Amino acid sequence: MSFNGLAQYVSNLESLGDLYRVKCRVDPVLEITEIADRMVKNGGKALLFEDTGTDFPILINAFASDERMAAAIGRKSLQEAGDEILTLSEAMSGAHRLTTKLSRLPRLLKYLKLAPHRRRGRGECQEVIAPVVDLNSLPVLKCWPHDGGRYITLPLVHTRHPLTGKTNLGMYRMQVMGNDVTGMHWHRHHTGARHYEAWKKEGRRMPVTVTLGGDPVYTYSATAPMPEEISEYLLAAFLRQTRVTLVKCLTNDLWVPADSDFVIEGYVDPSEEPVREGPFGDHTGFYSLADLYPRFHVTCITHRKNAVYPATVVGVPPMEDRWIGKATEKIFLAPVRLAVAPEIRDMHMPAEGVAHNLVIISIDKTYPGQGMKVLSALFGAGQMMLSKYIIVVSSPVPANDYGKVAEAVFSNVRVNTDLLATHGPLDVLDHSSDRFSMGGKLGIDATVKLPEERTVQARSVPLLLFTDTEITEEVITGVKTMAELSLPVVVLTIKKPPQGLDMKRLVAELPAPLTAPGTVTIAVDDGADPGDLSMIMWLVTGNSDPSRDMYRIEGGALFFDATSKPGSLPPFPREWPNVVCSDRQTIDLVDRRWKEYNIGEFHNSPSLRVLPLLRPGLASVETGKTATQ
Asked: Domain containing 518: what range?
């Protein structure tokens, strides 16, 4: 199923009883974010804010359920899309005989017919041409208190390579810096950045066009980890089973979907000095701090007559992008198996791992060393190269069953033989590594060990007998064991003194129960809830660099330092970002107005859960100060 513009998608959601219309005036600055955060973390419906102080309504939370995400990509379920790609991959691979290849030709031709179609004339996206270029006419959100300004959060950025002519569709946040200027936040690992470098070498101005809305499948396709040689609009057509119709822009020679809601045309001049962009409350749950990025100059804005402005909010997981990630798991499992490791049976990216910090893989294991082989392959494969922690288990353990994955880890992993510690590229948003966009990685081979791999007899998960009376360090403010889950895990909350804390010394002085073989101790900041497993997973994968923050204790125990690094010894060499949460004023405002929104049951602010982790400073933490100063 396809949708001709977001208004049609809104109507579909409303017919299913899966959308609230908010008719009262709501401020795009902070207020909408706080409402959306409460809804997404409580399984709420999509929201259409009709009175935004502009001529356009805002659609948000449009992907935040399995059902809405499936509808957005034109399918009845996410599994349906994954199954079809798996069937196609299996059918097209391994065809060696000519007769076999010819028999499969009709299926291939069917998909070749889904290539984008260029149409003469104007599209629905060009029904209205703005007489004056003014980005302030759009209801652009400011999401979090320390953001550098308002951000377009669901932009579909179209670029073209100056020599090859290859086009790319990507999604890169855009900070509005004036009526006709934004930042263009494309990372060094992204195709848009490579196109920019190519235009820079040519010494020419780079045409760029940004679309908003249209069929929601375009938004998903812009986030998908597609090979550079394959059009994102081919994926969109495959998912919705209808080819994409493109029309030419009015002020540059790029082509965009005719059914888009908004088109923002312009250029980037590589000869210009970059602009300071940020900070921004990011999907990591921390602020990405200000840095230098290219300027995007707007030359024309057009839109549909019934245009709906799409937006999303990112922050402490789970957020709306969790369901986009779930779609990627299903859709790209088959290509990963085909291109990287055919033994893979299941793949899962927990929301707490914010896509690139944690991946869990289940494999069919048939020979010794296979778990390590898969780990090595994945750390060098496409966007998987940015993964920080990867756990491999043996099928039939489901990759999304955390209890069974934990049981496999504690039953099958030996510290001396089953951990793959390495270095490599990290997502540029990773804040925990000593160096920008590069740091430590850890692979955990939790597969069942074959006879050739066993160094000792298999063991059951040990029960940790431990009480907080055995802790004498004053910096440790709380102790939580996972005995109720039958896991040998202890979480310590740490309050670092103003003079700093030497974590190596702390580890060396741990009491005996925490150094027993198979035991894992995790240190988090004072203010974290040690009983909140979701929070602990988020902090461990986000706040630690395994090459620096994982301590192997003689005898087979592990210690992970998942605290924030200001106040550490030796001093952390980079700025440390603050956690992302609403301010008290915005929380109180939404509390007071909740009934006025008419969006169902009241929900407390999710920010209350993370406010105790907020440290002195703004987007970045002020060094040398504790939370009480």
From this structure: 468-569
pLDDT tens sequence across 42-73: 999 999 999 999 999 999 999 999 999 999 99
Contact 338, 87 (CB under 8 A): no
Q: Which is nearest to 410 in space by CA: 423, 397, 421?
A: 397
- Is residue 584 one of the residues assigned to a domain? no
Are 146 and 619 a contacting pair, CB within 8 Å? Answer: yes
Q: What is the biggest distance separating any 2 CA atoms in the chain, rounded to whole angstroms?
A: 77
- For 53, 433, 449, 463, the CA distances from 404, given in Å and listed in that order, are 50, 30, 16, 16
Q: Are residues 440 and 506 in the same domain?
A: no
Q: CB-hemisphere CA count at 13 Å for 606?
A: 22
DSSP state of 238: H
Per DSSP, the residues of 534-553 read HHHHHHHHHH--HHHHEEEE
* 268 contacts 184 by C-beta, under 8 angstroms: yes
Distance CA 293, CA 276 (A): 6
d(CA 349, CA 341) in angstroms, rounded, equals 17
What b/e readout covers 220-259, taking b as 16+ CB neighbours within 10 angstroms? bbbbbebeeeebbbbbbbbbbeebbbbbbbeebebbbbbb
Sheet holding 255-257, edge to edge: 117-118, 245-248, 255-257
Q: 429 and 357: one domain?
A: yes
Which residues are catalytically annotated?
Answer: 282
With respect to residue 283, please indicate whether it lies within any of the assigned structural domains.
yes
How big, in percent rounded to 5, are the helix, strand and coil portions of the chain? Answer: 30, 25, 45
Peptide bond between residue 570 and the one before it cis (omega within 30 degrees of 0): yes
Phi/psi of residue 499, each to 5°?
A: -80, -5
What total of structural domains would you count in the chain? 3
Residues 11 and 99 in one domain: yes
User: Is position 453 within any domain?
Assistant: no
DSSP 476: E
pLDDT, average across residues 224-251 = 91
Q: Are 212 and 309 in contact (CB under 8 A)?
A: yes
Q: Quick check: helix, strand or coil at residue 411?
A: helix
Token digits for 137?
Answer: 């006419």
This prediction has a pTM of 0.93
In DSSP terms, 160 is beta-bridged to: 167
Render pLDDT for 12-35 as a digit per residue (tens, 0 to 9): 999 999 999 999 999 999 999 999
Q: How many whole angstroms separate alpha carbon 84 and alpha carbon 537?
A: 33
CA-based nearest residue to 321, from 82, 41, 45, 16: 41
CA separation (Å) from 94 to 89, 98, 363, 374? 10, 11, 21, 21
Within its chain, how far is the Cα of 95 from the centroid?
A: 36
Structure tokens at 571: 């001093």
Is residue 358 domain-shared with residue 390, that is, in the same domain? yes
